[in-house]
# Entry
Amino acid sequence: MSVGTSSGPGAQDAGSPPAASRPPGDLADLGIDPDQLPDGLVVADEQGRVICFNAAAERITAVRARDALGQRLEKALPLEDLEGRRWWQLTDPYGGLAIRVGQPERNLLLPGGREVLVSARYVRTRPTGPVRRLVVTLRDTEARRRTERSHAELIATVAHELRSPLTSVKGFTATLLAKWERFTDDQKRLMLETVDADADRVTRLIAELLDISRIDSGRLEVRRQPVDIGAAVGRHIQAYVAAGQPADRFLLRVQQPLPDLWADPDKIDQVLSNLLENAVRHGEGTVTIDVTATASPRDGEHAENAATSVTVSDEGPGIPEESMNRVFTRFWRGSKRGGTGLGLYIVKGIVEAHGGTIEVGRAPGAGAEFRFTLPVSAPAYLA
# Structure
């Protein structure tokens, strides 16, 4: 427990445990150890001496609690702003305006130049009274940096993927407008078909970007309707056959009877489209799709046949074992055959928005195997 007593001003006589030795605020009443908190917590008393320095603060600042306890706050936690000014002298929490209640979170620098996110709260026993406790929270900036890097990578990837079709669209339309009379009808049709296909590609990329935004913010809406999952898979197979794939490359096995499945048909089509496209593009041999009744992914064996499971497998080289845990992350690509690397990330978000689960493994034929399971419960308004 990294909570201690200051031996300087403000310490109380022996007898009952001094107030400064207890966790600040209501933590003691709640039975919470400051070391259990995920963020760094530093508390100074009315004299500006540190009385609490939890384990997360130790980890973030690389300062030992026993060295910080009892020290003046500006010595135990010598923060500077990004312009090199000493933070505690600049903000003067004990001698500044009595109406202030704290400092909003901002980036500050620890000795050595390491950035940390810091916010502070001034605790007073009465409005405009003296500061009795200064509560400081610390957070590492690494998580924020990872998020910023991920967003930057997403923008760069989408911008790169958009450039190619837009360049094609611009080139063909400019050529047709400038030299319309020089081309035959067949040449015009070919160019317009290319423009149409590239426009579809741009639309898909924008849809992926919107889906990722909704998934990351938890705003992906699911509009549940009855879905015949076997028929949905059949439609996708027919589309591939119509596009030139041999019919015997696909094997669909549907277990009967299946429970009624309530899901968002458009989003389930998106999941099936991604998984089948991966199997066709990156796999080899027969693509097998098994649709079965199974236990609910949330209720386990206590809810027999309360979910529908779809397994898509191929006979290709499969996914290396060391890559299994990265398959559903952004920008993961199983091969160098194109794609944004966002499809499986979106698939996972859609399945989980339905309350389902998805996993990847090795198929019996040594290829890749994706299996997602969806609960079949009806919407609440029909329950």
Residues 128 and 380 are 51 Å apart (CA to CA).
